[in-house]
Design brief:
One of its GO terms (cellular component) is nucleus. The structure is a single chain. About 40% of the residues lie in helices and about 15% in strands. With about 220 residues, the chain is of the alpha/beta class. It has a 5-stranded mixed beta sheet with strand order 3-2-1-4-5. A hairpin with a 5-residue loop joins strand 2 and strand 3 (about 135-145).
Length: about 220
């Protein structure tokens, strides 16, 4: 799948084999440090490793729409609902949503401060929509760190499809208290005052736990 994007048309400059490029990139993904790669890729300089990681990462990103997508048939949607229901008997759920901050260096310039999030560091606020088996349905990675989660959601195609009620919008969305509750987006009670509300919150948390697992892994 990646080879056409990585393989050079000739051997000029002694290019690296696509298999080596992918392995180097996966190794970097695993530890996040160029220094820790030294013992594994002794014959590749750090500048080349950096170029390899950039090239492979861009090639992987080009394949995103093949894998990160909503179910396209009624059967697939019903299967997703059933898998969510099996987690904590929460009916009608088709996806979970939240945002996570991906740390970046200051981009500089007059507008750099819009990338500083509430925690004080520069970031991209990435919205992710997931299914119950820890896979992604949708990713939005273009908003600076100061952007609120609810603004990203309100500006996204996810909300539009839910409001329209098309095939991809058939079902409920679970989000945390950073989102506004609506007929299509369910959030926890901030101050539950009954057994029913407490049970609702518990089922909501358990159903959404898979998404929190993804964020923890990040």
């Amino acid at each position: 799948m990646l080879e056409p994007h990585l393989k050079k048309p000739s051997n000029k400059g002694l290019p690296f084999a696509p298999e080596i490029m992918i392995l180097v990139t996966l190794r970097y993904y695993a530890n996040g440090s160029f220094q820790k790669l030294d013992g594994d890729v002794m014959n590749i300089c750090q500048q080349s490793v950096s170029r390899i990681i950039t090239t492979v990462s861009n090639s992987i990103a080009l394949q995103m729409k093949m894998f990160v997508k909503f179910p396209s048939t009624v059967e697939d949607i019903n299967q997703v609902k059933q898998k969510f229901f099996e987690v904590a008997q929460f009916p009608g759920v088709i996806r979970c949503i939240d945002c996570t901050h991906i740390k970046i260096r200051s981009p500089g310039g007059m507008s750099s401060e819009v990338y500083r999030n509430r925690k004080g560091f520069f970031s991209i606020n990435v919205q992710a929509v997931t299914r119950p088996n820890l896979e992604f349905f949708d990713l939005v990675a273009r908003w600076p760190g100061s952007t609120h989660d609810s603004f990203i959601y309100n500006s996204s195609s996810v909300k539009q499809s839910l409001n329209i009620g098309d095939l991809q919008g058939q079902g409920m969305l679970l989000g945390d208290s950073g989102y506004a509750v609506s007929s299509v987006c369910l959030t926890p009670f901030l101050s539950p005052n009954s057994i029913g509300q407490e049970m609702y919150n518990n089922y909501h948390i358990v159903t959404n736990l898979g998404f929190e697992t993804i964020k923890t892994a990040d």
